[in-house]
Write a structure and sequence with these properties.
Layout: H1 2-12, H2 16-20, E1 23-30, E2 39-41, H3 43-56, E3 58-59, E4 67-74, E5 81-91, E6 99-110, E7 113-123, E8 145-153, E9 159-164, E10 173-174, E11 177-179, H4 186-198, E12 200-216, E13 222-238, E14 246-252, H5 264-277
Parallel strand pairs: 1-7, 8-13
Antiparallel strand pairs: 1-2, 3-5, 4-5, 5-6, 6-7, 8-11, 9-10, 9-14, 12-13
């Protein structure tokens, strides 16, 4: 799956050479490209196809990205197969009406390279690029729930904090984050939550910390049980605004956080993220 993630990162960076190096020398692609390039064989042909595709259409998502991967996972029916679901927005170099597509791709990975890549996609209205997801039940869960959070740094070194609207931590300042949905990758879930809570599109960096948070009620029953994964993130687009279950959002100086009365764990994660980023 790391190879597939690397492919989408290269394409979002507009680097056709880096993308092609992830394919086997005798690879095949089916329906990945349009027109005469619908079927390609060999790394050189794929390199030329991606070069042509990237030149014909530019990324229409914040930061110039072309793809947003929403889900990625292995397939039980065959060893080495990976499925990635994605949304794409592109425009012509002249800035014509953006084209939005929804699709999924299958990859056969062997010895760390893509041997086969086939895609199914359809055009969708631009307003459907983001669809709301239903809330998950969090209180009194039958098993631990996975949450994702972020230390988001702006270009001037400030960090994004949110004031929680709901329990746990209602009315308190903390790092933005939320719950992973079924079938959603950690990175995709984090990017979705950051946009919903802060209005920002982020690039997801390395993991800062993994820890659990368990809260009991007065009768000793487990009311909340989260396993939380925090990442370092940087802003690539969007407009800062509170949303979702957030009452307020601010940009704070990471060296002066006392006024926000953060939990000790949140302050510790921010400090670790600062060291990791530097």
């Amino acid at each position: 799956m790391d190879v597939v993630r690397a492919l989408f990162r290269a394409l979002n960076a507009g680097d056709h050479s880096a993308a092609a190096e992830l394919y086997d020398s005798d690879c095949r692609t089916e329906h990945v490209f349009e027109g005469e390039l619908e079927y390609c064989q060999g790394r050189d042909a794929v390199r030329d196809a991606w070069k042509h595709d990237l030149a014909e259409r530019t990324g229409g998502l914040p930061g110039g990205h072309r793809f947003e991967v929403t889900r990625i996972g292995g397939i039980e029916t065959g060893w080495g197969w990976v499925r990635a679901e994605w949304l794409s927005v592109t425009t012509s170099p002249e800035g014509s009406e953006p084209r939005a597509r929804s699709g999924y791709s299958y990859f056969w990975i062997e010895e760390g390279l893509i041997r086969r890549h086939r895609t199914t996609a359809r055009d969708v209205p631009i307003e459907l690029v983001r669809q709301p997801r239903p809330d998950s039940e969090r209180r009194y869960p039958s098993r631990p729930l996975v949450g994702v959070g972020a230390v988001i740094f702006t270009s001037d070194g400030r960090v994004v904090l949110v004031k929680r609207r709901h329990e746990p931590l209602a009315g308190q300042w903390s790092l933005p984050g939320g719950m992973l949905e079924l079938g959603e990758s950690l990175e995709a879930g984090l990017a979705r939550e950051m946009l919903e809570e802060t209005g920002l599109h982020v690039d997801v960096g390395p993991v800062v910390e993994v820890f659990d948070r368990i809260l009991f009620d007065d009768e000793g029953r487990v009311r909340y049980h989260f396993v939380l994964v925090d990442y370092v993130c940087t802003v690539r687009g969007g407009t800062l605004a509170s949303g979702s279950d957030v009452a307020d959002v601010v940009l704070a100086d990471p060296g002066d956080l006392d006024e926000y009365r953060l939990a000790a764990k949140a302050a510790d994660v921010i400090e670790k993220a600062r060291r990791l980023k530097s």
